[in-house]
Fold this sequence. Notes:
The complex is a heterodimer of chains A (194) and B (162). Chain A is α+β, with helices and mostly antiparallel strands.
Amino acid sequence: MTVERGFFPAFAAFLAILLLMAPAANADDQDIPVEKFFGAYVGDAVIEGTMQFRDIIVSIEPIRNGFSVYTSTVIRTGPKRATSDVKWRAETQNFVQTDTPHVYEPLVRKSMFSEKRDPNLLAGDTLAWASIRGRTLGIYAMNVLEDGHYELRVFERTLTDLGMDISFVRYIDGVATRELNGNLARTKGDVDEN
Amino acid sequence: MLHGKWIDFCAGTLVGAMLLMAATPAAADPLPAEFLGKFRGIVTSGVGEIEGDFNMVSSAKRGGFSMAWSPGKSAEFQPSKNRNVFKAPDRGRLFEGAPAFWSRLEDGKLIVYSMQIDAHGGYDIYTFIYTPAEGGLDMIIRHLRSGSGPMESSARLKRHDG
């Protein structure tokens, strides 16, 4: 009986300590889930210090164990799109969850002849990954060049009341060499469908 | 006759050795002596995890060099195809937070890099630029990490092995 009387208060204290520790252990619960980014966004951006404008469409969708980001960029040099020097590019990037919380790696389709392997940053491979910090989805790509300089490209998409703020910065050896910022609105059609 | 053959043999061996040398990747020059030894200084305005007393120890090793620095980092930099670039062997998966280290020589400076994906999935990159100075090295530290702008600090490191 004495053992029991001693045991239960101690056990209760242990539980109380566990409860107190829980919020600290889960300090990253302010990172919003990737599902909140799913949708289509339309807007524009400008390269800092220039008159180079971009019309941008971003669509973020779920894929198995991750997400896909489609980005369409119309590159124009003036207020009008319909000019002879207008350019357009589009790309889709697919990322899947890694074993590390918060970190997504590019989806690599394995062929039957090749083993999946991590990129070798120091052998010249591009190291690309994605993560969510707060309301920002970051997509990063890094290279170590043959002469030892490094290049880091940072694409960040931050959810706002209107939709999404986007920023792109290219760093060479830690110095920002190109910066683009823009605002996108979440499209209504997307909201209706969801 | 025998003498001529001996010369031919020597010449052939020499040419063979030269071809062999040309075929193997050029070995990196050893690190200039100014960067080797024990150094210490104080980083007064800290960047990232580096603040206060700073120690750096380096020594030549197998055509490259090993280096340890505050707080508790170390790497063995091996020569690469580029004679001015040194790379440390893999420490594990970068996606799981393993660091990558490399370095290069340029214009008499030694530049050492460390890169890591932090626990939050962000980038965390340090650049150390060492320049020979009287009695030691001048050091500039640049820190680039997710969620904040680039940070920079500097310190004079005094050699204390002589």
